[in-house]
Amino acid sequence: MFLNMYKIKPILSFLLCVCAFYYTKAQVTNKEAGVCFRVDDTQPIDKLRMFDSLFRSKGLKFTFGCNAQIVERIGGEEYWTLLKDMQTYGHDIADHSANHNAHFFEVTSMQDTLMYAAKPGVDHINKVFYNPNANGPRICLKYNLVNTKGLGDEGKVTIKGNKLITQNNGEFSSSRIYESQNITKFYLPNINLVLGFSGISNVNPLDPDTATLMSFWNEDVNFENTGLIPFKMLSNFDIEVNKEGFLLMQQHTQYLFAKHGLKNPTTWIQPGGEQPYLSEGFIEETLGHEFSYLSGASYPTCVKAFNEYDPNGSRRFSMQWGDFYEENQSTSSI
Question: CB–CB of 172/211 below 8 Å?
Fold first, then answer.
């Protein structure tokens, strides 16, 4: 049986398209693989020296995710000198946010707040020290709601002082808070307000659940009795930091690096916890374009950016996780 030529042409065209697609996908690119060791947060200076000494003895380098404003408050000049020496050797002194938060940062003195007053991207400046760990007056950044749907089946709540009380039992069960979307914020649509919480309880399954509230920026709050109002439960991915405010925070980090003789950081490390998780696209558009950052660890994660389709060239800002825990894992399992 012979195919009509009018039928052959479309088939050939389709085959050519398929071949071209697979040829494009199969092109070889030279890549170099390896293992990256990263240490985050505020490490005691002796421990940081130990990391430095260990890696130098092997001729290797590691990344230190630095919280610059915390170092400024408690580290002292000796700490900055060590960081400068580590950077000169070749260790990557990365930007882990000024205060281990993506939605606010703190400065050293009231005088320092003047450069941020009334700036686009700043919601307000809080001059109150809430706890001994505060690093100075707090610059609270504006935010954008990406999604307000929540879980979709939330009931109504009453707010009294700093307590949010549900109408339904089990609203804050572990399966809903942690296993569904990792809920970290509440949204009150009637007044367009996002609130954080510092603790939840649903000890008695027969009683309504209760949450202790704080502001989006971890400040104390106190409300009058609201009566029953609707609310939504949001995850880390439902809220985005205002870009202009975020860039102000990065300027502060770079100011501290320059003040102590370090080169600007070129790696962003997303801090964990109950705060907005910034996407690879957000980090590329802000830090990549504005401050020439080269890579980052943000959300959502990728398979270490090695063999993934990368049309936007942004996967280098999504290298996250792959942790190991030497305290309770064997060398072979690691």
Answer: yes
Residue the block writes with tokens 């919601």: 123
CATH 3.20.20.370 in the chain is located at: 38-105+242-317
pLDDT profile of the chain (334 residues), mean per 10: 40 42 53 79 93 96 94 91 97 95 90 87 81 72 93 90 89 82 90 90 77 92 88 93 94 95 95 89 91 87 66 80 74 80
Q: Which two tokens stand for residue 220?
A: 């104390």
Q: What is the pTM (predicted TM-score) of this model?
A: 0.81
Q: How many CB atoms lie within 10 A of CB 129?
A: 13
Which pLDDT tens digit goes with each residue over 103-119?
Answer: 999 988 888 888 888 89
Q: Which among 41, 127, 89, 83 is positioned nearest to 259, based on CA atoms?
A: 83
Tell me how far CA of residue 287 lies from CA of 95, 252, 259, 291, 295, in angstroms.
11, 13, 20, 5, 9
If we measure between CA atoms, which residue out of 205, 119, 187 comes closest to residue 147?
A: 187
Which tokens sit at 163? 């307590």
* CATH class, 38-105+242-317 region: alpha beta
Report, in this order, helix, strand and coil percent for the chain, each rounded to 5.
30, 20, 45
User: Rounded to an integer, what distance in angstroms lies between the CA atom of residue 277 and that of residue 96?
Assistant: 13
| Token pair for 115 | 């450069």
